[in-house]
Amino acid sequence: MSSQLALENVAVAYGSFTAVSGVSLTLESGEIGCLLGPSGCGKTTLLRAIAGFESISAGRISLRGDTISQPGAMLPPERRRVGMVFQDFALFPHLSVARNIAFGLAAMPAAERQQRVAQMLELVSLETYANAYPHELSGGQQQRVALARALAPAPEVLLLDEPFSSLDSELREQLAGEVRELLKRNGVTAILVTHDQHEAFAMADRIALLRQGRVAQLDTPYNLYHNPGSEFVAEFIGQGSILTVSVNEAGELNDGLGMLDMGHRHWQAGETLRLLVRPDDIEYDEHSQLSLVVRGRSFRGAHYLYDLVLPDGQHVPCLAPSHIDVPPGGQLPVRFNLQHVVVFEPDTTPAESATA
Ligand SMILES: Nc1ncnc2c1ncn2[C@@H]1O[C@H](COP(=O)(O)OP(=O)(O)OP(=O)(O)O)[C@@H](O)[C@H]1O
């Protein structure tokens, strides 16, 4: 059976500049995907290509097996059965909530339209706001109206363009979780664009992390964090440091501290490796012989995130309970717990250019 949405080897060019190339990904029915990445990596360009606002210069985009974009041919946005929620919600200020939601249903007979609007109001729990105007609603409520409006025509895929960015940061993660619940409950296939990994984690089943117009890794949130395939992914996702370490004659890793306990893993003597160390790979241990200098720290409520200096000058993060209160310049006794860390071969390839 065909995927709900499939991108095969898609490229998008603006004149001679190739903004996106070689992008392949599929979404199955009811799946929530995410395009994540730093500013300028091509997220919006890809979303616009899926919506039909941007033509593609290579590859194919299809919805349930039907081609909607290929070089030189594209179905116009209004014929794609794609719904869109914009960054600023784009509600019509002079229309009531109900009329905003009814906007895309002009072709429907009036009675059916009214029923559909009522159903959408219920879906987003705004039944009592049908006659309110957008300015009378909170940011979160406005967003639910935008969602209801986009879902009203029953699109085959819902596109969400940075849907939480105009809301305050406290609300964002909570809303991302709520929107996920709503979409999952209703079996909506959706794709979200964001540069915020917490939003991506809270909403998506699978994430395509983009770098300079290409997919750096397409994976579950768990794998992106725990099994990053490259240093770029490791540095973009979560916190951590990448240490340069050498392998000694016994095949063990040595970083100037003595040996790092890596469980049963061994490497070729003489090699240099890059090791991803996450804050939870280094634990506070009051009995440890090893103390590291505190370079800085930030308060996280239950924890301090410490920035510690190794004897050779490299830094490592460490998450310690916040009652362990060592100011910068002090020494924190720690233990390395590196059984699950990720090791990279040295990355000598220069960053790829997006321009083909
Ligand atoms: N209309 C355009 N004409 C020419 N270049 C463009 C156009 N739109 C985007 N670009 C370029 O294409 C690249 C990708 O842009 P895009 O807006 O897709 O990135 P993004 O990942 O969505 O970034 P942001 O998170 O900042 O919105 C950038 O280098 C951008 O400068």
Automatic annotation (TrEMBL):
Pfam families: ABC_tran, TOBE_2. GO terms for molecular function: ATP binding; ATP hydrolysis activity; transmembrane transporter activity. One of its GO terms (cellular component) is ATP-binding cassette (ABC) transporter complex. Residues 5-237 form the ABC transporter domain. InterPro entries: AAA+_ATPase, ABC_SmlMolc_Importer, ABC_transporter-like_ATP-bd, ABC_transporter-like_CS, Mo/tungstate-bd_C_term_dom, P-loop_NTPase, Transp-assoc_OB_typ2. Keywords: ATP-binding, Nucleotide-binding, Transport. The keyword Nucleotide-binding applies. GO terms for biological process: quaternary ammonium group transport. This is ABC transporter ATP-binding protein. It comes from Parahaliea maris.
